[in-house]
Amino acid sequence: MKVTFLRPLYLTFLVSIPFFIVAHFLILKHIRRRALKFANFEVLERALGKQLLNKNIIVLIVRLFALILFILSTAGTTLWYTGNPSTYDFVVAIDASSSMLASDYAPNRITAAKSAATEFVDNLAFQSSVGLVSFAGTSFVEVDITSDKVLVKDKINEMIVRPVGGTDIGEAITTGTNMLKGSERARAIVLLTDGQSNVGTDPKYGAEYAANNQVTVFTIGVATETGGRFPRIDAISKLDEGTLRMIAENTGGAYYKAENEEQLKFAFQQISETTEQLVSFNLQLSLMLAALLLLFIEWGLINTVYRTLP
What we know:
This protein is an alpha/beta fold.
């Protein structure tokens, strides 16, 4: 856990605290002198003991806390803490290129991917939001970030292979990152592909873009070592593990290799249990409200039970 400040220069106003304390006691001294002109202040003090002084100290403490909270608020205090799965917002990015019809999964890669992704969304924490991207030679936003997980699952099940040549992993990452930019929670992309990026944006650029926007990318390779043939095409699709590892390592995520449906579901389960992620919480409004509350309390004290003697 750590605390950062958006406007640290405002913290210099904390040096005013000693002057504030001195001013408080100078004002008390002035009030005491004025009271001596009209009453026997020493008799009052003997009658009240130290109660009058204590009341003034309490008011001073309330004022000091209000001042400190106000300064911290204007400085843009932000709390960073380690999040857990309930603090994540996700984008699930699924490869919908023709290579996902390869038969090394039964019946094919995209069917297995859709099944595992649906289960993943179904098991997300209530607080988490999720979006869906499909990609081939370009990216398609199937569902923007939403808390409606039923809608996302329906869209996953409706996904089809895209008639756009190639696989653009880099663009899928940048698209998912842009979708997550508005999230105040920890942000992660789960990218599921056969790992062969052959058109468009360089995957390395996509990984750098995600990292610069504090988005973690988890990659899942859905293919076997031997690869698989796809219908009506005399070619074999194989897994490019190097690219997927690079993406995960450069963004603080992890790479999972899944050679069957059980391993695929296990990979999603591991991702959902991830807890190592810094989450930011802006304290500006909370600190300002607390400062205003203390000022209201201080006003009540000096006008009721702690009212200064005339």
